[in-house]
Design a protein that fits this description.
It comes from Streptomyces filamentosus NRRL 15998. By secondary structure, this protein is α/β, with parallel strands linked by helices. It is built from ten helices and eight strands. The two termini are 13 Å apart.
Amino acid sequence: MTSGTTRTHLVWDWNGTLLDDTHAVIQATNAAFAEVELAPITLEQYREMYTIPIPRFYERFLGRLPTEAEWERMDEVFHRYYTEQRAACGLTAGAEELLHQWQRAGRSQSLLSMYGHEQLVPVVRGYGIEPRFVRVEGRTGPSGGSKALHMERHFAALAGAGGVDGFSPENVVVIGDALDDAVAAAHVGARAVLYTGGSHSRSSLEGAGVPVVDSLGEAVALAETFAA
């Protein structure tokens, strides 16, 4: 990684990107599916069918949107099972060193996740990487929606007092594993790089019209070329 003086700021996604938790997500999804008597799915099926908002994802298997009661039950079961399984998950290969190198080069980075904020912060702290970020934010409010408005608030905070000096959306690269990360980046005028190790298949990600990579190292290398 080159040192340079680029102002590029990275916004990292958490689940499926920095955290290698896709198998925990599949197990939690199948537990939620069992609540409405749906058959379990494979990782490949999940990646081909996954979409946001989550009720639409469930609709693809149910043949209809879940009722409000079904959604609440499935969401509760998903999060309960996910919390149980997450403890065994590690960071994605190379993630810790990439974060360290970016910070050591004098560059800024932050983390924005759709994982609940109150759960996210202690989890990130537990992996020992919280000091790498100028800001760590998780979802506030109901689960299952899009990241776009959360990204908008995240950018406002980064541009505000105590944020990032000289912050500008065109100098930001969002690194995530979902089509919604690209949508959220476009919503605020930032670039995006999508990683194939998480929630979507490569063919699904390529539909977003942004670069798609197979490792986080490739994602960071691309972010550096954007600033060249």
